[in-house]
Amino acid sequence: VEPSAERCVSTLLELIQTKVNYVVQEAIVVIKDIFRKYPNKYESIISTLCENLDTLDEPEARASMVWIVGEYAERIDNADELLDSFLEGFHDENAQVQLQLLTAVVKLFLKRPADTQELVQHVLSLATQDSDNPDLRDRGFIYWRLLSTDPAAAKEVVLADKPLISEETDLLEPTLLDELICHISSLASVYHKPPTAFVEGRGAGVRKSLPARGGSATHEEPAQPTVIPNQLHGESLIGDLLSMDIGGPPPAPAPTSNLDLLAGGLDVLLGGGPEPGPTSGTTGLLGDIFGVTTAPASYVPPKQCWLPADKGKGKL
């Protein structure tokens, strides 16, 4: 927030005066962001920052300090000496610091070309010939081609005015913000656009809304489970599925009378009685399904006559 930026810078300067190494480095990183947000407003503290240049050992803090020196090189008298001190251990620096050094030296050359021509040739040689980092080499070749072809075009590209950092959430409508919160896990919240903006030729989709925040929200009663009517009567599940009427158990066979040996009982034993036929009882489950009748309960083979009555003469 702009009204509190000046107070924030004053507090950061007090922290830098403590000379605590990690505090100084974090303060320089934050001050770089403030310079980016409010350019050409707090340049008076640059001299204080340069006093702590030798104590910086974190890559992010060193890269931030190099950016500040390159951005305000025209206001720092010994900017070339400060950057040259970093180039002594160029290959030992972090890739982030190397990229910032390359850009800062090119900025210094475009602002003071007469004094820094040898310095820019040295850093371009380090970046393009002695480095294995492809990003650093590509940027070095681009700067080299721009400077050798058209220095005026290089100045327009490298020293162009940067867009101001602004808070985009202040520019969004409250209704859109409420809708984006419902789609926080989708690309709509990333691009700050409603989901309907990504679909061409279709009408507006259904908008999600947040639930009411009041404490008097009504709770719906859970639906009662549906009970199958047949289960209430205890019927069989197979009978319910196949719509079959399964009868009760088959009736017990009628008891047979005792064998009368004197009144024709011998004829019954020797084959005089009729063969039992198939029982006409209730068919089984498979018979109901396939429409067939069941087989006889047992098979009785035909009886063979060993002694005719005329030859035996009634004797056994």
UniProtKB/TrEMBL annotation:
Which Gene3D superfamilies does the record associate with it? Answer: Leucine-rich Repeat Variant
Annotated GO biological processes are: intracellular protein transport; vesicle-mediated transport
UniProt cross-references to InterPro entries, sorted A to Z:
AP_beta (IPR026739), ARM-like (IPR011989), ARM-type_fold (IPR016024), Clathrin/coatomer_adapt-like_N (IPR002553)
* Keyword hit for Hydrolase: no
GO annotations of cellular component type: endomembrane system; membrane coat
The record's keywords, sorted A to Z, are: Membrane, Protein transport, Transport
- Report the subcellular localization: Endomembrane system
Primary location recorded for the protein, binned into one broad class: membrane
The UniProt similarity line reads: Belongs to the adaptor complexes large subunit family.
Protein's recorded name:
SFRICE_032444
